[in-house]
Amino acid sequence: QVHLVESGGGLVQAGGSLRLSCAASGTIVSINAMNWYRQAPGKQRELVAAFTSGDSTHYADSVKGRFTISRDNAKNTVYLQMNSLKPEDTAVYYCNAAGTIDAGTSVVDFNSWGQGTQVTVSS
Q1: Do 1 and 26 contact (CB within 8 A), yes or no?
Q2: Cα dihedral sign, 115-35-78-67
Q3: Is the pLDDT reported for residue 94 higher than 90?
């Protein structure tokens, strides 16, 4: 499986900004999807931002206009720029990537999740 390493989380005051990074490592052949999810206590995990078919993007209504997803294909890295943060953005943020990897004798599918990074927004 592909390993995903997230960084950039932390504690920030309301109105501040953070940029999350998620770097994928492994014998990657292709990455077909890179997405950001989050899960707050007592809530279901929700899709925050994603690249969809044709490299278009999708954002949850709650973050639209404040968050921006981007990627660097050469680095196999996806970013989430988070501006105008609100306390309700507090959650564990997870990177998700799917695609194919070189298994040596064949190419196989992967669907991997990062360990999550805590984002805490104080009032």
Answers
A1: yes
A2: negative
A3: yes
State the sign of the Cα–Cα–Cα–Cα dihedral 110, 79, 58, 114: positive
**Is a pLDDT exceeding 90 seen at residue 101?**
yes
Tokens matching residue 97: 């990537």
Tens of pLDDT, residues 24-62: 999 999 888 899 999 999 999 999 999 877 778 999 999
120 bridge partner residues: 11
| pLDDT higher than threshold 80 for residue 123 | yes
Report DSSP letters for 6-23, one per residue: EE--EEEETT--EEEEEE
Q: Which two tokens stand for residue 13?
A: 């005051």
Q: What is the phi/psi pair of residue 90, to 5°?
A: -60, 125
